[in-house]
Design goal:
alpha+beta, Jelly Rolls, 2 helices, 15% helix, 35% strand, ureidoglycolate lyase activity, Ureidoglycolate_lyase_dom_sf
Length: 217
């Protein structure tokens, strides 16, 4: 083997060794990463009083009653409303992410009044901003849809239990995880906009906080 071949072989082996070292470092880094801590939350019974920070709980009223503050106060002004039934399967009592919609209120209810759960946090939209990077502040984030917000705080997450002839209305920007339930599958009616899940669906992943939530019920 001539000097050129030896030099080429050395360069090749050095490059391969460097790649192997990088792979080992990455495997060690990911392998040593601690598992997320599990936070157990006891569900709160959803009533108009307990849920008012996040939206409304709308219960059955007598036929003929006039519109009042007990009815859902909706904001559907940024698009075409969409009312539909969604079938959801296998939603265990845990969640590791949470979502908000900045442009619309949302109504959710189970068909048949069956029991279900919803993880929530108060809205954290930066309403007074002008959608400029300079308005982000220390904790601000700019969503893909352009609005500014602060991520939800782990200590502010709550879980609500909803059952019976009622539905919930989420205020604009209310963080929510669910519907979650014990049954194998459930059907829910959902009122939002036709493009909510396409252009107004901002999600925070709690792996960034090193936690997951478990509903203790």
């Amino acid at each position: 083997m001539d000097d050129y071949s030896v030099s080429s072989t050395i360069v090749f082996l050095s490059a391969k060794l460097s790649l192997l070292r990088q792979r080992v470092k990455m495997e060690n880094r990911f392998g040593s990463k601690p598992k997320p801590a599990t936070i157990k939350l006891k569900p709160i019974e959803a009533t108009p009083e307990t849920f008012q920070e996040f939206g409304q709980v709308v219960e059955a009223s007598d036929d003929g009653d006039l519109f009042s503050s007990k009815d859902a106060q909706l904001d559907l002004t940024h698009g075409i409303p969409r009312l539909y039934i969604m079938k959801i399967e296998k939603r265990p009592l845990e969640f590791a992410s949470i979502t908000h919609h900045a442009r619309v209120t949302q109504c959710l209810g189970s068909i048949g009044g069956h029991e279900w759960y919803l993880g929530v946090a108060r809205p954290s939209l930066l309403e007074n901003s002008n959608e400029s990077e300079s308005d982000l502040g220390k904790n601000g984030v700019k969503a893909l849809s352009g609005h500014l917000y602060e991520p939800p705080r782990v200590e502010e997450i709550r879980v609500f239990k909803i059952a019976g002839s009622k539905f919930i209305k989420l205020n604009r920007g209310t963080w929510h995880a669910g519907p979650i339930f014990k049954a194998e599958s459930m059907d829910f009616y959902n009122l939002e906009l036709t493009d909510t899940n396409l252009v107004d669906h901002t999600t925070h992943h709690f792996k960034e906080n090193g936690v997951v939530f478990f509903i203790d019920d």
